[in-house]
Amino acid sequence: MRAPKDRVATRRSAAVAARTTLTTLTAAVGTAGLAAAHANPGLLAEVDQHAAGVRDSLDGDRRPLTVAALAGYVDGLREAAAEHGWTPPAGAEVDWSEPDWMLTRLLAVCLLARGLDPRHLA
After folding, report:
1. The whole model's pTM is what?
2. Alpha-carbon distances, residue 17 vs 11, 24, 34, 59, 71 (angstroms)
3. Run means of pLDDT, 10 residues per run, the chain, 122 residues
4. Residue 21 Cα distances to 2, 41, 68, 86, 117, angstroms
5. Are 25 and 116 in contact (CB under 8 A)?
6. How many whole angstroms separate alpha carbon 16 and alpha carbon 97?
7. Are the C-beta atoms of residues 26 and 71 closer than 8 Å to each other?
8. How far apart are CA 71 and CA 40, in angstroms?
9. Nearest to residue 49, comparing CAs of 101, 96, 89, 84?
10. What are phi and psi of 91, to 5 degrees?
11. At what angle do helices 31-39 and 101-114 cross, to 10 degrees?
């Protein structure tokens, strides 16, 4: 039995949206932030702790993390942060010497996304 065409398109669209969310996040904070973390052991330890928290939130010890799960987590995190008045830093540069909780959490998602099978992010 085959899925209806509109259902297949919806799944494909959701998969594209999830990949786009993670790709955009990586471009916005992940690339520079992870480079800064690898140069700063204290920041890397914080990011690792946040990554463990994200993994726990998504039951990552019992189920493999997926692009969809991480993207959904990011969307929910951003929505909750916006409700509490958080806005992303203005401008292209982020000061990674003392990032706030939200930026560190987003960076942790980028770290986890890097560990996914790259075929799922293309």
Report:
1. 0.82
2. 10, 10, 23, 22, 8
3. 51 80 91 94 97 90 86 94 88 83 96 80 49
4. 29, 27, 9, 18, 16
5. no
6. 33
7. no
8. 26
9. 101
10. 90, 170
11. 100
